[in-house]
Amino acid sequence: MPTMYSITLKQGASADEIDKAKESAKAQGGTVKHEFTLIKGFTVEFPNETVHTLKTDDHIHVEQDGAARTQ
């Protein structure tokens, strides 16, 4: 089963940096599923057996997407 990640960029990130992050995700086997409009970011789905290097970029924050819970 594929794994979904939320990718967000720092507030000052340019449109070019966002495009580079999306292209990097796609090059690593990911599929962009949703692009955010209020914040600079997107969700990407990767096959489980993929290795990711997006976390090595200082301008990108990566976290596994999941259900929001209050407790």
UniProtKB/TrEMBL annotation:
It comes from the Eukaryota. InterPro entries: PBI_I9 (IPR052471), S8pro/Inhibitor_I9_sf (IPR037045). Gene3D superfamilies: Peptidase S8 propeptide/proteinase inhibitor I9. One of its GO terms (molecular function) is endopeptidase inhibitor activity. GO terms for biological process: vacuole fusion, non-autophagic. SUPFAM superfamilies: Protease propeptides/inhibitors (SSF54897). Belongs to the protease inhibitor I9 family. PANTHER family: PROTEASE B INHIBITOR 2. This is Inhibitor I9 domain-containing protein.
